[in-house]
Structures are given as structure tokens and as C-alpha cells.
Amino acid sequence: MGRKHRRNVSTIIKNMLIMKEKIQIVLKGIFKENPTFVLILGMCPTLATTSSAINGLSMGLATSFVLMLSNLTISLVGKMIPDKVRIPSYIVIIAAFVTVVDLLMAGYLPDIHSTLGIFIPLIVVNCIVLARAESFAAKNGAADSIFDGLGIGLGFTLALTFLGFVRELLGAYSVFGYKLISGDGIILFILAPGAFFALAYLMILFNMVKKKLIKK
Amino acid sequence: MEKKLIVSPSPHIHDNVTTRRLMRDVIIALLPAFGVSVYFFGVNALLVTLVSVCVCVGLEWVLQKYVLKTPPAISDLSAALTGLLLALNLPSGIPLYIVAIGAAFAIGVAKISFGGLGSNLFNPAIAGRIFLLISFPVAMTSWPLPSSGFFATDATTGATPLAIMAHGLADGLTPQEIMAGDHGFSYFQMLFGQIGGSFGEVSTLALLLGFAYLLFRKVITWHIPTTIFLTVAVFTGIFRLVDPSQNPDPLFHLLSGGLMLGAIFMATDYVTSPMLKKGAVIYAVGIGVLTCVIRKWGAYPEGISFAILIMNATVPLINMYIKPKRFGEK
Lengths: 216, 330
Hints:
The complex is a heterodimer. Chain A is mostly helical. Chain A is built from eight helices and two strands, in the order H-H-H-H-H-H-H-E-E-H. Chain A has helices at residues 2-32, 43-48, 53-77, 86-108, 110-116, 127-137, 142-172, 192-215, and strands at 174-175, 178-179. In chain A, strand 1 and strand 2 (178-179) form a beta hairpin. In chain A, 37% of the residues are buried. The longest helix of chain B is centred in the first third of the chain and has 24 residues, at 43-66. Chains A and B meet through loops of A and helix 5 of B.
């Protein structure tokens, strides 16, 4: 009885340790290796699709979905792919999942799909997805790869939503489409130059907060 | 103040020129134009200027003290000058909160974010004006027409000569018909400032007076403004000769819009213009050509502020290629 109990405790501790490891992988993607504010990858969709919070959120979620599934697939089949053709093979795998997202969004979320337009198919060449495939999924196990995709995806989604939120708030005086003050807003923030301004200042803010937290 | 022994490479310049003295001279040179605008646009012009200057100076002080953590240097008057220039580039009836946003952008983004005076790539006042022009297109193009009543707050609005001209040309009229028409204007009015426009740009005569003062005090050299005027005159002159029915004459272009204000006071900013005279001429030709191109083919009737901003971006490149010959170099 006692031995069995001890074994249970040790499995629970072991499981907890594994859980902790996975959570750390996820947190790393959100904070320490945030793709937008720290790695500065995938700038094209970041700047182009964040004219409102809802656009940023949907772009982030679509990319997260592709990231998780492509990471999983590549971690499973990665060892079978010859080194010389690995990048084209990754692209084919990623393109397959992007097509799935594209068709799903066209079917169920036609409004957002038409707003995001070309940027959904362009997830194929989003360097975040390829970078995680190359630098993480190809070298790690299936479970870790899914959690890495989840973490990086969440980090990307949060960053894009926040950026979209700030731009929409300043540029249209509204939050998730809900108008706070009547009037046109500072239109520049909805336009392309506003994306650069907002991104730059959010990046400063993010790194200031990060520095303070690391000091503690 | 404790004395410091400063060791630095030559050349060693001994002069009593300080930033404060230069900035003060530019502000004095702007006073005639400011006076004319208060005369024509009344208390509104005063209010806009007050808000703009206060926000610029206040924000500069706060950011220098708490963000850059350098001793606040608002007494060098550069922030006050930015505020004044920005205000002179706005229509007088503009809501005051928009003025405050523009001033905050000019100082916070275009100046302090780049490291403060001396490090800014773009002229803060121009950057602030363009930010407002793109952000609030309606408020920024509702030009109150000049009246000589001091408290004329309900002045009617109208278009600037450039906008009237662009609109008229699109309707198939000739420049002469437009100037003689219902919304017409004379060169005399353009010289003294009885036209619609940003309130500092309307009186060409007052601005030229400021130019003369700056030359007299040796604050600026004649190269940049004169080259801009010449370029604009030649460029528009050629088009005028080719097709007089579609192109107003060079005099109209020189007297209209923000050309004088921009060429004399904004393009000559020390920080954002080339260091040598040869570079300055290249820079000024660029501004002149871009201004005419935007005026003739662009979506906006006036192009001088965009032209200055674009050419500001090329200044580091010009400085890199146009260098003085070193002693002994062939």
C-alpha cells in the first residue's frame, strides 16, 4: 500500500514537472521570445492587418492555428525529410494548413476573410512559421512542438491584438468596433504610417516592462 | 559654474553665438508675419499660437527631465520656435485640442524620440503639420478668410488661392479667368496677406521682411531660400511657356501657399539641412522641384511641407557625399 502510494506521488510530481516545462515553453513564446516585440519577425502582417483590434486578433489566431499544426507535422515527419529539400517540404506542409485556414475562414467568417484578403494566403511565407519549423519543430518532440506553436502563436496574437487595439483607439476612437467618442479620430493611426509609430512605441513599452521584470 | 578644461580636436570655434541667440533671432524674424496674422485673423491666431507654444515647451521640459534625464534646456528657445512655426502653419479656426496633439507629436515623436535638439532627422514643426494634415484633413483645410475684426470668431471659411486655382483648372478655366472670377484674388492681396491660408503664410511681404532680418543678423545664408525660389520660378516658368492656359505664372506660385514660410524658416533649420553650401543647393533644388511636382500633379494643392520632409530624409546622404576637400587632397 505504502509503496503504491509513493509511486503515485512520484508520478504526480513527474507529471507536474512535465507540465511546468510545457507551460514554460508557452510562456517563453508569449514573453521572453515574443515574435513581434522581441524576435521582430512577421512584420508584414503585423503592420498591414492591425488597423483594428478584431483584425489583429483574427490574423493572430489564424497564424497560431497554422503554427501549431505545422509544428506538430514537421516534428513528426522532420527526420524523414532529406536535409537538402527540407525548406520546400516545410513550405508545402505550411501551405496545406494555410489553405485549410483560408477555406475555413472564407466559409465561416466571410467578412473578416475579405478584410484580411491576401494576408491569409501570405501566412505561408510568414517567417515566424518557417522559423519555428526550422529552429524548434525539426529538433524537438511532437508535444513540445505543439506547445511551442501555441506559445509563439499566443504571443503573436496578443501583440497583434494590442497593436490593433491601440491603433483603433487612437485612429477611430473605438474599441473592438464599439465607438467611444464620436468623431473621426486621428486618422493617421489607421493608415500605414500610424502602424509604424504605434509599433515603435509599443516595442519601447514592451522592452521597458521586460527589463523591469527581469531586474526583479 | 565650475570651469572645465575641454579637450577636443580642431577646428576650435570662438564665438558668442549660442543656440538661444539664434533661436531668438528667428522668433524675432517671425514677428512681422505673426503680427499680420493677428491683424487679419484676430484672437483665434493668438490662441492657436499660445496653445502650440505652451504644449511644445511644456512637453519638452517634461520629456527632457523624466525620459531623456538630461537637464531641461527649454531656455534655448528651440521648443518655443517649433511651437510658433507649427502654429503659423495651421488654419486659425482649428480646434485647440488638435493644435495640442500636433504640438505633442512635433516635440514628442519628431524631436525627443530621436534624441532631442541636434539629433532630429526631421524638422519637428513640419512633421507636426503633416501629422495633423493627414490625421484631420477636414479641420486642417477649413481656412477662415481674413477679416480685420479682432474678435471675428465666426469668420467665413474659404479655399486658399492654390486650392481655388487647382479647382478652377480642373473645371477647364484659365488662370486669368480664375483670378478675375468670383473667388478671385489679386497679386496685391497675396503680397499683403488678404487671402485664405494657414495664418502665418498669408503675407509674403512680412515673411520677406523676416528673411531680410535673418540675413542681416547672419542667422541663415541666402542659399537655401533663394535656390528654392529660383527652382520654383524656373520649373513653373517652363510650364507656363508651354501651355499658358493650364499653368499659372511663376509669380503666383511664389506668392501662394506656404512656399515663403517653408523656404525661409523651415527649410533652413540648421539640424535638418545640409552642412555645406553645395549640399544646401542640391537640397534646395530638390525641395523646389518636389513642391512644383506635388502642386501640379499631386493630390494635395500645396506641396512645400511634404517636399521639405522628404528632402530632410536625404540630408544625411547629401552630407555623406558632399564633403569639403581635405588639405593636400587632389
